[in-house]
Design a protein that fits this description.
Elements lengths: L4 H14 L5 H16 L7 H8 L8 H7 L4 H11 L12 E4 L2 E4 L1
Antiparallel strand pairs: 1-2
Helix pairs in contact: 1-3
Length: 107
Amino acid sequence: MEIKAQDLLEEATAKLISQAGKDKELTSVLINFSFEKSANDKSWDIEYDLNNISKLLLNENHFEQINELHEKSLVDFENLKKEIGGQDGPEPTRFGDWEKKGITSDF
């Protein structure tokens, strides 16, 4: 029986989402991701994004980088997100605006 890679990834994504509510740390990350998408005027539904991200697992060009992520925890990713920074609230460029040194301008 042949299993299509995309079907397998979609099943894995669905299984990950099904763990929401069972795993406190995972639930928090998934909820925050959904809220961030909504705050940036994007769909709160994260399944589409997670399916697209999962496609990187099949791309041999990304194998080395993805392999390095194997040892990372959700806390590591949250810390990286804080380290990278960015501003709080909706992304100003979502309307085609530009932000430089905290000032948003419209072109």
